[in-house]
Design a protein that fits this description.
This protein has one helix at 9-82. With 92 residues, the protein is mainly α.
């Protein structure tokens, strides 16, 4: 009875070759992933810096709007103080 070959010599040689190349390929893949991770972290920091600038601009605008509203209020108060009230008119 002859035994049937499950694997040929060519198949085994190719498998061994693949096993020998695997660590090098994994190292290259790991290096590429580390580079991509560094790029993404740099992009994240840039985005965070831009967000901080935008938040500062929004805060400055809100402060300017509040200051403008206060100035308008003060102006209205000064105008009201300059106007003399007619004693014949009822108070509102």
């Amino acid at each position: 009875m002859t035994r049937r070959l499950l694997y040929t010599a060519q198949y085994v040689a190719g498998f061994r070759n693949a096993l020998q190349q695997a660590p090098e390929e994994l190292h290259d893949m790991h290096f590429k992933h580390l580079c991509e991770l560094a790029d993404l972290r740099r992009e994240l920091e840039e985005t965070r810096a831009a967000l901080a600038e935008l938040r500062a601009a929004v805060r400055a605008r809100a402060a300017a709007d509040q200051e403008l509203a206060e100035l308008h209020r003060e102006r209205e108060i000064q105008r009201a103080q300059k106007v003399e009230r007619d004693p014949a008119l009822p108070l509102q």
